[in-house]
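Model: You mentioned two targets. I'll fold them one after the other.
Researcher: Yes, keep them separate.
Model: Target one:
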Amino acid sequence: MPGDEIEVPKELREFMLEKAEETILGQKNGAEKQYRYGNLHIREYHDKFLVHTDRIDPREDPVGHLIHDAPEVLIGLAFAAFTGSQIVKKFHKNNSSLASDILFSIVSGYLGYVGTKKIKNYLE
């Protein structure tokens, strides 16, 4: 089932990474490296691999991957964009502190991301 991770011992490294490609796409979650092989997302840690299947390969369809496998990233970006647009309007009206407004936009995006991730994990 997509989203479920399995742990694979390091001893199977040659088998696991034979055709997998190292990638920057995806959340590393503390992994040393990460790889993709089709819809498989493989994270390499010091002593193990964690592997899960994505519904959509981000190399083939990045937007589809965000929608189906990582909606929390999409919602976080939407929160940040919305608050950022409101900040721009406010900044032009009353010349407030741009640094605090940008920080608020970042925090808003992060909270949207974290909240959506918690909901997603709860529903899985």
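Model: Target two:
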Amino acid sequence: MKKALPLTLLAGAALLLAAGARAQPPKAEPHMQKVLDAHAALNPKPIETLTPEEARKQPTPADAVKKVLTDMKRSTAPEPGVTVKTMTVGSGDASFPVHIYTPEGKGPFPVMVYYHGGGFVIADTKVYDASPRALAKMANAIMVSVDYRRAPEHPFPAAPNDAFAAYQWTIEHAREFNGDPMRVAVGGESAGGNLATVVSMMARDKNVALPVHQLLVYPVVNDDMNTPSYRKNAEAKPLNKAMMGWFFKHYGGDPKNPYALPMKAASLKGLPPATIVAAEIDPLLSEGKAYADRLKKDGVAVEYREYKGVAHEFFGMGAVVPKAKEAEQFAADALKKAFAAK
């Protein structure tokens, strides 16, 4: 008769199995997996091993979408029906470009100031072109996409200061590009979602007109890297735990300052209604849900939706990932509702 294993060994084995299970991110649905495979085929180097300059030259998820479209023998041209022009915003002793996405039709149009992702360090409005382009058409609104200054050359608080300057500029200049200054929302993805909700806080705190809505797509709102989603998605693609540590290091934000990490705010009362989009395969999933709960607790109206089987960066991939198109429509419907209420 075989001797039973000691309980301590069994418990240790169970812990190891549990740790292994946590390290495996959820399975991607087929369309998302095709994009992830295309990105892997472009041979990106691990961002966390690179300098910021090197990291900015790596293949992006947007490049992977273009590869999928090319492999499918479909056009990689930007979606038609939107015109884009560039203007300049002055922010103290600095200036930066904004790109105005205008849908077809007669204005004045409502406006959303849009902030791109990239961990405050990499990427720009070109990498994220598909998102404001899609939202301009689907929400029938102008998108002001902001090329805020990036870290580490311009560490915190440069990005939120630029983001807030772009919001104020948009209100002041909206009529110049056929926008309605009384209907201005803010939104963004990842680091851009952080900036959108930080701008909402800054407007509240500085007694500036509040945005009518905040669209937060898998926002960075905390620095707790031991949440359930960080553990489960520690090795996920295209965003993992090591990359987030690299982004935080280069951003240089004060971990106690709510303008760096909105979850650290003493109160979220008085912020505009929010729509939060979350992805299952994303280290930021847990904090996005926690932020939605915290907003609700502080009396802010929130619509939260998690999309299964898709990864961080999926929003804006509507050309090849049907769930991305669903998320874009969910966001656009929320914006239209917010604009109609004004």
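Researcher: Noted. Anything on target two?
Model: The first strand starts at residue 82 and ends at 91.
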